[in-house]
């Protein structure tokens, strides 16, 4: 039988140690896999490849469609973009599945409560699209892009995943109370799709309360679906509930490619010391085996990991303290010796393949019955207070189809003067609306207004104020009527 080729990326820091452990165990379990080693991350940045992902890695992934990777280092607050995010986005791995469960043998404040939950995190949109612009020399902006298509894909994946694993509920966690259009789109899509899965209980929870509930009563959750950044944060939290990042695997799933890795990063302080816990990457390998249909081998490895953790003879430093923890290599060898044994205190689920949603690739995913432009927000840089800016813009709008409705500073109305005591910055949103409230502003009318504003003021961007199917396609400022 020909071997299944899998791309393996050792990664940075502790990555190679984790990957070596996972590969050794998968090979010892008798899996029919040929590993194609490729690179990404720090070593690649050093070669001067700004994406951190070289062409031969991309070629390999296009061919194999399955990747087991170690963590990649990303410079914090400066430098090139994350090679991890690049890999996820290049191959449209839109669903990030992050399971955690209690491990008998790993004592935590939650031991005995049977935590067994999964965060299903949207993986390619939201603030992590990484679209950032300096608006003025002192004000930065990041665009939070959420699409109906992206929401539909992640919501359906969460429900399909719940079904495949025989789980009972899916909670949708958002910040839709504040970000009504972006986070609200996930909530709305979830509520529209949930009735198609009557066998699974569903509810919405505000993300900050979800974080609180996860600490207080984590066993109430089964599957949580959420947006990219929320999911990134709460999945580190859920890892902490079961013993830490050393125990948290991940699958990045797309319709074409799947990438399996740990939740954790390259933990550089432990690199090369043979002390870290490789379980996250080993369990990511288990998820990978299930993805390629090797269910028996996956359960055999998962059982051996459980036996090793339960018996605690080779517990790593993160579990028992680095002064008395087993070496990574000893832990790995013990798991290999335990292949074929069944744990006494935990059980594998009856896993089935996940049916990923097949959703139209047409970029125009939503066709509204009606749309209208009600006006525009022109964002200006202005070094003084709101009054002189407002008076100047009132004057500029005279004789045009628009009137200045209000100016806001970081989201709060400051002109016409409100009650707010605002510490303003030099970034102002100037909202112009059509005088005729039933009209539809043309591009020419907006361009003419912009030309007039531009003659006097410095602007950095413009947003149309849309009405879609009779509903406003924009939110109000704090304090706006
Ligand atoms: P990190 O590498 O995940 O490490 C944070 C802490 O988690 C470690 O100091 C250690 O805690 C614990 N830890 C992580 N992995 C462990 C393991 N296998 N065994 C035992 N303990 C483990 O996070 P970071 O320090 O914030 O990030 C370092 C680099 O990794 C950054 O460049 C970041 O961008 C990158 N990163 C990459 C990925 C990825 O490739 N998917 C994900 C996250 C971060 P103690 O200090 O308490 O022992």
In brief, what are we looking at here?
The protein has 14 helices and 18 strands.
Description:
- There is one protein chain.
- The protein has 481 residues and is α/β, with parallel strands linked by helices.
- The chain is built from 14 helices and 18 strands.
- The chain has helices at 15-28, 42-46, 55-64, 83-90, 148-164, 182-193, 207-216, 228-241, 279-291, 295-311, 317-320, 328-337, 386-397, 443-456; strands at residues 4-9, 33-37, 66-69, 95-101, 116-122, 132-136, 139-142, 169-174, 201-206, 223-226, 249-253, 258-262, 371-381, 402-409, 412-415, 427-434, 458-468, 471-472.
- The strands form three sheets. A ten-stranded mixed β-sheet has the order 2-1-3-12-11-4-5-10-8-9, with helices on both faces. It has a six-stranded antiparallel β-sheet with strand order 15-14-16-13-17-18, sandwiched between helices. A two-stranded antiparallel sheet has the order 6-7.
- A hairpin with a 2-residue loop joins strand 6 (132-136) and strand 7 (139-142).
- The protein is elongated and about 85 Å long.
- Bound molecules: NADP nicotinamide-adenine-dinucleotide phosphate (NAP).
Task: Walk me through the topology.
Layout: E1 4-9, H1 15-28, E2 33-37, H2 42-46, H3 55-64, E3 66-69, H4 83-90, E4 95-101, E5 116-122, E6 132-136, E7 139-142, H5 148-164, E8 169-174, H6 182-193, E9 201-206, H7 207-216, E10 223-226, H8 228-241, E11 249-253, E12 258-262, H9 279-291, H10 295-311, H11 317-320, H12 328-337, E13 371-381, H13 386-397, E14 402-409, E15 412-415, E16 427-434, H14 443-456, E17 458-468, E18 471-472
Helix pairs in contact: 1-9, 1-12, 5-6, 7-8, 9-10, 10-12
This protein binds NADP nicotinamide-adenine-dinucleotide phosphate.
């Amino acid at each position: 039988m020909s071997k299944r080729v899998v791309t393996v990326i050792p990664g940075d820091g502790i990555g190679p140690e984790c990957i070596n452990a996972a590969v050794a165990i998968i090979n010892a379990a008798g899996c029919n896999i040929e590993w194609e080693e490729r690179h990404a991350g720090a070593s690649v940045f050093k070669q001067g490849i700004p994406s951190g992902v070289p062409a031969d890695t991309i070629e390999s992934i296009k061919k194999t469609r399955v990747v087991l990777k170690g963590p990649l280092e990303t410079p914090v607050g400066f430098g090139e973009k994350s090679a991890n995010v690049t890999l996820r986005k290049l191959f449209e791995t839109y669903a990030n599945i992050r399971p955690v469960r209690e491990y008998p043998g790993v004592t935590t404040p939650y031991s005995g409560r049977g935590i067994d939950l999964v965060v299903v995190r949207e993986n390619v949109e939201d603030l992590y699209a990484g679209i950032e612009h300096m608006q003025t020399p002192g004000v930065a902006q990041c665009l939070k892009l959420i699409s109906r298509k992206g929401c539909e894909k992640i919501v359906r994946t969460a429900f399909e995943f719940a079904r495949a694993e025989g789980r009972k509920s899916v909670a949708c966690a958002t910040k839709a109370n504040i970000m009504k259009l972006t986070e609200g789109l996930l909530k709305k899509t979830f509520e529209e799709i949930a009735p198609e899965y009557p066998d699974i209980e569903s509810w919405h929870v505000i993300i900050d309360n979800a974080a609180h509930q996860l600490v207080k009563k984590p066993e109430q959750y089964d599957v949580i679906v959420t947006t990219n950044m929320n999911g990134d944060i709460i999945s580190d939290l859920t890892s902490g509930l079961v013993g830490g990042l050393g125990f948290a695997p991940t699958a990045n799933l797309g319709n074409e490619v799947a990438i399996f890795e740990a939740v954790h990063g390259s933990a550089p302080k432990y690199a090369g010391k043979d002390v870290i816990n490789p379980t996250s990457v080993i369990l990511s390998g288990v998820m990978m085996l299930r993805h390629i249909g090797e269910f028996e081998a996956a359960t055999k490895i998962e059982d051996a990991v459980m036996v090793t953790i339960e018996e605690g003879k080779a517990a790593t430093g993160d579990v028992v303290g680095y002064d008395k923890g087993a070496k990574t290599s000893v832990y790995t060898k013990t798991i290999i010796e335990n292949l074929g044994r069944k744990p006494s205190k935990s059980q594998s689920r009856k896993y089935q393949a996940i049916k990923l949603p097949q959703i139209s690739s047409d970029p125009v995913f939503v066709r509204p019955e009606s749309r209208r432009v009600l006006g525009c927000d022109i964002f200006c840089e202005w070094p003084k207070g709101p009054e002189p800016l407002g008076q100047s813009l009132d004057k500029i709008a005279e004789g045009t189809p628009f009137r200045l409705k209000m100016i806001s500073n970081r989201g709060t109305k400051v002109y016409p003067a409100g009650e707010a005591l605002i510490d303003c910055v030099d970034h102002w949103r100037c909202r112009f609306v059509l005088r005729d409230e039933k009209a539809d502003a043309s591009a020419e009318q907006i361009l003419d207004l912009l030309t007039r504003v531009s003659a006097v003021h410095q602007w950095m961007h413009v947003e149309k104020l849309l009405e879609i199917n009779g509903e406003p396609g924009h939110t109000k400022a704090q304090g706006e009527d």
